[in-house]
Amino acid sequence: MKISELKLQNFRGYKEFVVNFNPKFNLIIGENGSGKTALLEALTVAMGSFFLGIRNTNARSIYKKDIHIANYDYSEEYLFPVRVEASGIVLENNVNWARELNGTKNRTTTTEAEELKRIGKRIEAKVREGEQENLPLLTYYATGRLFDEARNMNGKEKSETIKAPIASRFRAYSRCLEAKSTHKDFQKWFRGKELARIQRGQTETSLDVVKKAIVDNIPNCKNIFFEFDPDKPQGLKIELQDGRVLPFNMLSDGTRNFFAIVADIAFKCVTLNPHLQENALTETKGIVLIDELDLHLHPEWQRKIVHVLKDTFPDIQFIVTTHSPFIIQETGEEELIVLKENAVNQVTSGINLSIEDIAEELQEVDNPQWSKSRQEMFEVASKYYKAVKEGTDTAEMKAELDEAMKPFSLDTAFYAIIEQEKIIQEYKKNKQ
């Protein structure tokens, strides 16, 4: 499944909006409040419509908080219909579909998503009959992906689920569109696979595939394993290249973020399509949404993660957001989307731009080579220098300059220029 075009009407901050997507990688940038997260949320509605045809999964509806609010002189009003329309390829079919909400007490419509629902029903029936059909990966990683843990079901249903889980391929769709972390699901699966390997003494291909994806791509990672030794703290652990062994929870936020994304995508690929064996990561199709890809990552890792996602999961469509110029710099042709004032600008690429060019031209940062303090000092200094030349400088202006120059006390060149200019002006006065 891949989305080629998305149209929005009255969805959150968007009154009317259209955007096209690259089938491989898409990086969305824009100021805070430009609608990056809202666009990802709209995409969860669009791609979640696939679940209308699959039992025991949750299709994302249009919520009350998604309704666009119009502000008038004397009132605020909800605008309807709230509409999310998409087109793309779903299991080799070209499909157009839409969902609408027409009132605060209405339900999200499904009439215009019937074709997508039928495709979901067909694939579900085949999989439940044991046919080896490829299932698309659909998942959303929000900014709370590390710490905001998704809750399981409550009460009797929860206890029955824990006691009697089944190895359904569809379990990879559980809570996949929630803005929550599901990393505990991965840790539970990893522990079970390690135990199964010990018990049977056999190769676990899915486990090997996931471990390879992690070890090959996580910086400084030598090995990953689950600690069963009763004399040591048990749990998921990483062996680093320098020989240290650290529990997952003791890793830096950046490492855990990098780890969690790669591990979870790989885990979902082998769960959805176990019949693909060692090719599960390279042949699984689908859509992955990631909000703030640069979250907690060092700039060097920010540059690395774009290529990790593209190379490790080559048939996945990634749609991600960022504020990082380092990630922007790694985008290829037609992979960069700039949001600006409820409009969109499809930029060819950021690969030929310097960090300063990106900050200034794409992110509209004035004079990115200078700190804000230095910019303020420059403005005060320019005003004072002009006053000196005109003979209108005052003690108050000198004091203001001294205060602005404090962080740059080693920069004596400007004071030398000022003193020289004063001598020149004094000489001119005396001569006259």
UniProtKB/TrEMBL annotation:
InterPro entries reported in the protein's UniProt record: ATPase_AAA_core, Bact_Antivir_Def_Nuclease, P-loop_NTPase
Gene3D superfamilies linked to this entry: P-loop containing nucleotide triphosphate hydrolases (3.40.50.300)
Domain ATPase AAA-type core: 25-328
Name of the featured protein: AAA family ATPase
Taxonomic lineage from the root: Bacteria, Pseudomonadati, Bacteroidota, Flavobacteriia, Flavobacteriales
